[in-house]
Amino acid sequence: MKPIYLVASGDLRPAANQNCESAQAEMETQVVSAVQKLGGTVIRAHPYDPVKKHGFIDSQKYGMEVFAKIPPAAPLIVAESVWQYTHHVLAGLTTHRGPILTVANWSGTWPGLSGMLNLNGSLTKAGVRYSTLWSGDFTDAFFLNGLRTWLAKGRLTHKVTHVKPLAKARVPARAAETARALAKDLRCRKAIMGVFDEGCMGMYNAIIPDELLHATGIFKERLSQSALYARMLTVPDHEARAVFEWILQHGMRFDFGKDEATELTEAQVLLQCKMYIAALRIADDFGCDTIGIQYQQGLKDLAPASDLVEGMLNNVERPPVLHEQTGRELYAGEALPHFNEVDECAGLDALVTYRLWRTLGFSPETTLHDVRWGRPFGVNGRKKFVWVFEISGAVPPAHLVDGYRGAVGERQPPMYFRLGGASLKGVSKPGPIVWSRVFVEDNVLHCDLGLGEAVALPEEETQDRWRQTTAEWPIMHAVLHGVTRDQMMARHRSNHIQVVYAPDAAGARRAMFAKAAAMRALGVKVYFCGVH
Q1: Which residues are within 8 A (CB) of 499 and not within 5 positions of it... i.e. 6 or more apart?
Q2: Cα separations (Å) of 488 from 288, 367, 479?
Q3: Kind of pairing, strands 253-254 and 408-409?
């Protein structure tokens, strides 16, 4: 058996890599032990750096240096217990000829599961063959049997019998008619996707090639975060204060402190209010129908987090903003769909969903979440697998229990957000949902769709899930109908998942079929996952 090389892609932010080093080292020890028990040997392809105080590949440049020293045909494990920037290792993986196995630990503490799913989605888009596994402690039969197969054959596949192409389903006539009208309108009048700097956090899978996007009737307006920051500087203090007062009057609370470095302050939130105003004004200037702010790179060194801004933009009920010259209210009575971390696949999904739900007469607020973690829990007397869906921003108050009154702004973690800023934290209300993911494979747009529900869990369970993930972020307790944990992990092509509510189960099914038909009419290959 050939020696197996192991690499670990990490964050670009030193603080994140340093804080997560011990979890990664523990996970790697478990993976190596499992390989050794099955007769293999592991060579770590890059050392721990005592100066940086971590052992991650932390840049694309370093990743290229590491891969230049790995035998091109060697078996390779990419081990992830943390959020990672895929572009650190993508260059090397695209030319690696040996078998590739991506592995993540089943833990929500540092989002290794999300990191691996992003890597998997990026490899899928890039056309790189890979296998994938996940485990809690790397001693369970599922993991060991999968690892044994990969060691012997260099390839591992999972059953995805829950996936059915739309072509094999019958779309109800009303849904098909609604879909055709939406697709015709989008292709005729077209739409503009405002992109505030592309390629956030190395998410190659989140970039839609222009020619694929154009075929749907959507065109990118490439905007700059520096322009957003410059526009923030033109917003008068009294306008920011008015937005802040509106939020308070609608019941949202803020957990304020005094230490800018570690606590949330009113000054941080007022800057976020300026960003909210600036984003709407720039979007209006360019006629954007949806926008995405990168924030994580560039803007993070200039301003507090964009997350409170994103959640408000995604809400129909939100603070009014006027045009500077005419006094016209911008996007009056509408949300401005925002796709977190400029995930363009989520942006396409959000725009189609928003317009379709408006047509159906349903509440149109939609958001992406990270597929963060999950575990079984008793729901209405039955044990079900309940996912933790979380995202730092973009969740609209309409999704939360008690709306704005159920929301609290807590300081974003200093490890990721040096200049702070409020989150829009709350618990997603119970109810039927339609979930989806747009992704690129074989240079074609695809969309997976499914039904599910957001469920209510006891307060103690909710708090424990927050403790094990990121307590400052909004959370959804999600059950996916007809999709097991392992089926989801095997199939899903992204760290992100799009969710939207429906008024009841029948409405969710009707809307899902309409959305599937609309995506197909726009040239997207559509699949149902689970119950449909």
Answers
A1: 366, 367, 368, 369, 389, 399, 433, 434, 435, 452, 454, 476, 478
A2: 33, 19, 11
A3: parallel
CB-CB contact of 286 with 297 (8 Å): no
Cα dihedral angle (130, 484, 392, 213), rounded to 10 degrees? Answer: 60
Question: Whose CA is closest to 378, among 269, 491, 461, 467?
Answer: 461
Structure token digits, residue 472: 């400052």
Q: Domains of the chain, with CATH numbers?
A: 4-153 (3.40.50.10940), 168-529 (3.40.275.10)
The answer to whether residues 92 and 45 touch, using CB atoms and an 8 Å cutoff, is: no
Stretches in the chain below the pLDDT threshold 50: none
Tokens coding 336: 């401005």
The C-alpha atoms of residue 217 and residue 193 are separated, in whole angstroms, by: 10
Could you give the maximum distance between any two Cα atoms of the chain, in Å? Answer: 73
3-state DSSP of 370-401: EEEEEEEEEECCEEEEEEEEECCCCCCHHHEC
Cα separations (Å) of 236 from 37, 225, 242, 275, 421?
65, 19, 10, 12, 19
pTM given for the model: 0.97
- The DSSP symbol for 55 reads -
Give the Cα separation of 18 and 13 in Å (integer).
Answer: 9
- Using alpha carbons, select from 95, 102, 99, 93 the residue that is nearest to residue 27: 102
* Number of CB atoms found within 10 A of residue 201's CB: 23
pLDDT digits (tens, 9 = 90+) for 513-530: 999 999 999 999 999 999
Q: For the CA atoms of the chain, what is the radius of gyration? A: 22
Q: What is the pLDDT of residues 325-380, one digit of tens each?
A: 999 999 999 999 999 999 999 999 999 999 999 999 999 999 999 999 999 999 88
> Are the CB atoms for 323 and 284 separated by under 8 Å?
yes
Residues in contact with 177: Cβ distance below 8 Å, sequence separation at least 6, in sequence order: none
Quick one: pLDDT at residue 298? 83
Burial-class residue 412 by CB neighbours within 10 Å (0-12, 13-18, 19+).
buried
Q: What is the 3-state secondary structure (H, E, C) of 221-271?
A: EEECHHHHHHHHCCCCHHHHHHHHHHHHHCCCEECECCCCCCCECHHHHHH
- Find the angle CA(469)-CA(472)-CA(475) to the nearest 5 degrees: 65
For the purposes of burial, counting CB atoms within 10 Å of the CB of 256, is it exposed (0-12), middle (13-18) or buried (19 or more)? middle
Task: Tell me the DSSP string of 124-161.
Answer: HHHT---EEEEESSS-SHHHHHHHHHHHHHS------T
Cβ(107)–Cβ(79) below 8 Å:
no
With contact defined as beta carbons under 8 Å apart, do 155 and 75 qualify?
no
pLDDT digits (tens, 9 = 90+) for 121-173: 999 999 999 999 999 999 999 999 999 999 999 999 999 999 999 998 999 99
